[in-house]
Amino acid sequence: MTDNSRRKFLRNLGGTAALLGAGPLSTLAKEHVQLLKPDIRISANDSIRIGCIGMGIMGFGDVDTALKVPGVEFVAAADLYQGHLDKVKEKYGKNIFTTRDYRELLNRKDIDAVIVATPDHWHDTISIAAMEKGKAVYCEKPMVQQIEEGHKVIATQQRTKAVFQVGSQRVSSIALAEAKRRYEAGEIGQLNVVEARMDRHDALGAWQYSIPPDATPANIDFDTFLKDTAKVPFDPTRFFRWRNYKAYGTGIPGDLFVHLISGLHFITGSLGPERIYASGNLVQWKDGRDVPDVVVAIFDYPETKTHPAFQMTLRVNFADGSGGGEYTRFIGTEGVLELGWDDFKIKKHKLAAAPGYGGWDTWNTFTKATQDTFVQQYNAKYPADQRKPAQRSEDAYAAPRGYDSRQDHFINFFESMRTGKPVVEDATFGLRAAGPALVTNESYFSKKVLHWDAQKMKIV
């Protein structure tokens, strides 16, 4: 696809503001925004029947998005809470097969693909079982809860040849594809620092999800939920707010850092960092959780064939009294790429060849005669075109209103099933994104700098 077909220039500034609404780029009142154009490539010559295991927030969201793709039919759901299964029939129809035992869903011959949207500690077990049953698998991020589980998922995918995609939908965004092209074209110079933050200040954002009034042992298979973790009495808080516990989830790094790492690896082609150090605290949400609500981590990325050495700092703060906010900045020697979710900006600040003089400078301490001699020699050394001030520019790019990168991620998944085309985020990519996030947790709890082998995907 050519550049012209992938984007168009919007020069009506009023139209820009109306189109972008309240999004990150809507404040660019005096700037031109290049709108990116999605690639229409949906083919639905045959029907794909899907089942979903784990009908929580992500489960319902994923099913809704998958059904927007032509030729996809939702036929079965599994969940350990009866209320979720009742909601499935209420929303999608009474003919949907529902069960509390995911194995019953996997045994159905009429299911081609499954979405795995369970708590993190179940991802590997269900994904492996599904591939063994010949199903294609769309597994929510992070791909696994433990690093060694990731290697088992990779081995199973390679052996069964199943289509397997991790659900970090950002890597399918048309904005990320364009950002990658711009980065590879050298528009920000040499990358040296990446910094990102994703801060929140509300209860739902801190995973204090609502607990239904009918959360009883009769309606929830709590023992199965626990899997191989420590046996504890029935606790609906652990079941519905599982992200708050390291036994079932992966904390801030697994939920949020992995998005940022996935985007970074996609744009730069990186395999991962070599050193990781994390610090943090439990500041505000002291609700029984055993994971922090503030995490800051430093990642050292070594020089490779695809990128120079650079440092990355990630921060998530659930106790942000300013109200929250987020950004991701790729900082280079000649510019910065500021990445939104489905939009980005490139700001350039290219230095002049001449270093300049005056201002906060020793030149002001010279005698008048010495200053005159200095200027004469300076002008002879640097022609006029090299003495121009630093060149500044700014461009903005955005997907059109209504664009959904998660839908594109599912299109990629189903397209792979139909054509054999490689998925955009396979199991190896998934572990290379999840691994550094999981090591971040290890570093936080051990209070140590940890070394990561990005090629072999293991702690050194």
Describe the protein's architecture and organization.
By secondary structure, the chain is an alpha/beta fold. The protein has three domains: 3-36 and 174-351 and 392-459, Dihydrodipicolinate Reductase, domain 2, CATH 3.30.360.10; 48-170, Rossmann fold; 362-389, no CATH class. The protein is 33% helix and 22% strand. The protein contains 14 helices and 18 strands. The chain has a twelve-stranded mixed β-sheet with strand order 1-2-16-15-14-13-9-12-11-10-17-18. Strands 5-4-3-6-7-8 form a six-stranded parallel β-sheet, with helices on both faces. Strand 7, helix 7 and strand 8 (164-166) form a beta-alpha-beta unit.
Please render the helix and strand layout as text.
Elements: H1 3-6, E1 7-10, H2 13-20, E2 33-36, E3 48-53, H3 57-66, E4 72-78, H4 82-92, E5 97-99, H5 102-106, E6 113-116, H6 123-132, E7 136-139, H7 147-160, E8 164-166, H8 174-184, E9 191-199, H9 222-226, H10 236-240, H11 251-268, E10 275-281, E11 294-301, E12 310-317, E13 325-332, E14 335-339, E15 343-350, H12 368-381, E16 391-398, H13 405-419, H14 427-446, E17 450-453, E18 458-459
Parallel strand pairs: 2-16, 3-4, 3-6, 4-5, 6-7, 7-8, 9-12
Antiparallel strand pairs: 1-2, 9-13, 10-11, 10-17, 11-12, 13-14, 14-15, 15-16, 17-18
Helix pairs in contact: 6-7, 7-14, 8-11, 11-14
